[in-house]
Specification:
The structure is a single chain. The protein has about 150 residues and is an all-alpha fold. It has 4 helices and 2 strands, in the order H-E-E-H-H-H. The longest helix is centred in the middle third of the chain and has 28 residues.
Length: about 150
């Protein structure tokens, strides 16, 4: 059981790391940042600097990626989903989008489904989570199927 869940953690972190890397590299190629900056976040009454905010965002992103990777692997272990095939993983990406829109985005200050930014913020999240699902599918097949 644990090797499969650990492989899910690794594949989730790997997919999240690839997407995070692309998000940091894309502005250097003219993609720009379309998400407007919110008020600086505060922790215990202290405002975070831009660097601290980026590090916190990176840790949250990789933590959620590992959590959702482990979650899908656990669903396979407990036979809630049949296997590591593409369609169930893409469905998991949609579940991730809904949970992020209902729980994570409001906690980060983006509002319910990212409405504080604009109407397209959730569409971007769905596309990103779909890309995460494709990357997770490729990586989990290397670690679980290829092993």
């Amino acid at each position: 059981m644990w090797p499969t869940i650990l492989a899910g953690v690794y594949a989730g972190i790997g997919a999240g790391a690839i997407l995070t890397f692309l998000s940091y590299v894309a502005p250097h190629f003219g993609a720009g940042s379309y998400v407007r900056d919110l008020d600086p976040p505060t922790i215990s009454g202290r405002k975070l600097s831009k660097r601290e905010t980026q590090i916190a965002g990176l840790l949250i992103h990789l933590g959620l990626s590992s959590f959702f990777g482990a979650g899908y692997a656990a669903c396979v272990e407990y036979q809630l989903v049949p296997n590591f095939s593409l369609l169930p993983i893409l469905g998991w990406g949609i579940v991730m989008s809904l949970l992020a829109g209902l729980i994570v985005m409001p906690l980060e200050g983006h509002g319910l489904f990212g409405r504080k930014h604009d109407a397209w913020f959730m569409v971007d999240a769905i596309i990103t989570n779909t890309l995460w699902a494709f990357l997770f599918f490729a990586l989990i097949r290397i670690w679980v199927i290829g092993a």
